[in-house]
Amino acid sequence: MKNVYLDHAATSPIHPEVMQEMIPYLTEHFGNPSSIHQYGRRARKVLDDARQTVASSIGASRNDIIFTSGGTESDNMAILGAASALKEKGKHVITTQVEHHAVLHTFHELEKRGFDVTYLPVDQYGRISIEQLKNELREDTILVSIMYGNNETGTLQDIQTIGSVLDERDIFFHTDAVQAFGLIPIQVDELKIDLLSASGHKINSPKGTGFLYVRESVPFLPQGFGGEQERKRRAGTENVAGIAALNKAVTISQAERKDRYDQYVNYRNRMKQIWDEQGISYVQNGSAEFFLPHILNVSFTEVSTEVMLVNLDLAGIAASSGSACTAGSVEPSHVLTAMFGTDERTKSSVRFSFGLGNTIEDIEYAATETAKIVKRLTK
Ligand SMILES: Cc1ncc(COP(=O)(O)O)c(C=O)c1O
């Protein structure tokens, strides 16, 4: 039996060159970047180089990059850091109903701290309405957090328009770009993004790596206390080997971005083509126009998510029900519920996500096996 990993949106394998890059910093070059001796200076250079790479990849200034442990920490830090610094100015914040829990649960925490939170609904494709966003803005709105691309459906939001609407009104804009970074070209100045979260393990860097971009003009309070690392914004000795790895992973993903994009579009089209040829019934969840290429979410309406995932696993195919946090649970996803209410398709959705190591043969195998399973279970 073939094993095919199609869950790259949950986490991705480490690129071999990334692995090579980090090893010296786990062995001989183990210094602390805050030390003044040669060991420390060597480690410090790793941070400087990586900061430059990461900043360039989104058109930002080096000083505006904070290395973190990943997407969750970046989201928490962005939202709590900005909201707590701005609370004298206003207590109204806005997000969407389809954010990752790293964002949604942070907004629940803000509610507990006395903030007024608006959760924007989405249409059946998973997009917010710009008109509705405009209507919800108030005198006391201080921060808006809207994800770049959804981790379950791949739907992209209109970040360009959102950025300019908020910029005109001087409201700070955070975007969770954990799934988009590395596949979509992002320039923070053009898009008027003030804070941006990204995660290393989605782009072939190890788990425990990531960054947060915070524009210099954003009032921001640290959320952890200790040393003066990361310009006093994130205390704690830096993950030097992880940051060396992140540098390499960002470099590779930027160089290969266009090729990867085209490859994944080809994969998703091929999967759907095989299902169409096999005549099985399925519906695609998400936008056919504004999407992340590596995420394909479909409902095989007559087969429940759990049954489908177990059968796929038996056939060697690793897929998911959506976000890693909700995988394995019987609760329909909050993202699909926001899009479809209680519709049957929320109970039969499967997310296939593509990445490093996948070949067209893998995709054809997975699509053919999926069709066989659907036919067997709906006979
Ligand atoms: C959109 C989005 N935000 C945040 C996260 C959390 O990132 P991490 O796993 O690096 O903490 C994820 C992970 O699945 C994600 O997909």
TrEMBL record:
Catalyzed reactions: (sulfur carrier)-H + L-cysteine = (sulfur carrier)-SH + L-alanine
Cofactors (names): pyridoxal 5'-phosphate
InterPro entries referenced in this protein's UniProt entry, alphabetically: Aminotrans_V_dom, Aminotrans_V_PyrdxlP_BS, Cysteine_dSase, PyrdxlP-dep_Trfase, PyrdxlP-dep_Trfase_major, PyrdxlP-dep_Trfase_small
Family: Belongs to the class-V pyridoxal-phosphate-dependent aminotransferase family. NifS/IscS subfamily.
Top-rank taxon: Bacteria
Entry keyword Nucleotide-binding: yes
GO terms of molecular function: ATP binding; cysteine desulfurase activity
Entry keyword annotation includes Nucleotide-binding: yes
E.C. number: 2.8.1.7
Gene3D superfamilies the record matches: 1.10.260.50, Aspartate Aminotransferase, domain 1, Type I PLP-dependent aspartate aminotransferase-like (Major domain)
Bilayer-crossing regions: none
Record lineage: Bacteria, Bacillati, Bacillota, Bacilli, Bacillales
Domain Aminotransferase class V, chain residue ranges per copy: 4-365
Protein name, per record: cysteine desulfurase
Keywords (A to Z) from UniProt: ATP-binding, Iron, Iron-sulfur, Metal-binding, Nucleotide-binding, Pyridoxal phosphate, Transferase
Name of one Pfam family that matches: Aminotran_5
